[in-house]
């Protein structure tokens, strides 16, 4: 399965991304943002990268590609260094990109596909809509949005169609804002991309998003050795804060595990943290909603998602084992009537795990 992510840029920042071959995310004037870091840690080596220029008065929004993440490392910059190389946002103000990743070209097309074609033009089937990007646009301005595998394939197809299949070669590129096209270019002067980020066990105590970020940092594509009982062994796709409808619902972690050439398990994982312990009673209802959203015969948002391959999981970080109320465990187990083998797990502060 292909994995893709869309990064928001502008006509002033895109040339910097292309010349230096990196992507980044901004938290305004802040030097740290654990939610943005979690999003960046989700992106793994080889994942495909797309750029999206938001619509402006003289420019229609469009998507460009295709690039890929060079490695699994996320870099961190703070202060004035985060505005380099010469990054400016709206109204010419310095833009801080605090988290960054190195990228490289895969198959680069000069023209972008217009936003209205990608998001507004109705395809033959509703399942062909790029729901992840539609939700992003409707609900918030997330700067780094993952695409489900079939959404990635469709976006590639749309970009190919916009270019009649003609790509350009090179290792570094430039952007012409007057024609809104990418061209081959030279590598610009190197800049300080920052220091590699590494979260530690101590960080998971800070909150649920830090807990999520630590998990995403440690998950691997392919031969995953980090809690494979929970997240899957042969992981082929990873998502976090996955939009599940037009409400505020988001799946904390969603992984797709490949079992064989034709079979997959969709693991819907709800996280709970000691700082959000009061939300545990809502976990069964949340998981039930996500299952309905996902199954092809209900919400239809996970292609190939069936009762027998969608697996709901509650993973709670606890200071001591056996702290989840038995009625919550029982309610989640009863979801077996609509999904595959629901499970409840606890992890202590040393990340030892126990199944309930």
What does this structure look like?
With 356 residues, the protein is α+β, with helices and mostly antiparallel strands. The protein has 2 domains: 193 residues, ph1033 like domains (ph1033 like fold, Roll); 155 residues. The chain contains 9 helices and 18 strands. Strands 1, 2, 3, 4, 5, 6, 7, 8 and 11 form a 9-stranded mixed β-sheet that branches. Strands 12-13-14-15-16-17-18 form a 7-stranded mixed β-sheet, with helices on both faces. A two-stranded antiparallel sheet has the order 9-10. The two termini are 32 Å apart. The model has no long low-confidence stretch (mean pLDDT 90).
Quick structural summary:
This protein is α+β, with helices and mostly antiparallel strands and 356 residues long. The protein has helices at 14-20, 34-42, 115-120, 131-139, 149-162, 208-218, 228-231, 283-294, 326-333, and strands at residues 4-9, 22-25, 48-53, 62-69, 75-76, 99-105, 113-114, 144-147, 172-176, 181-185, 195-196, 222-223, 234-243, 250-258, 264-272, 310-317, 343-347, 353-355.
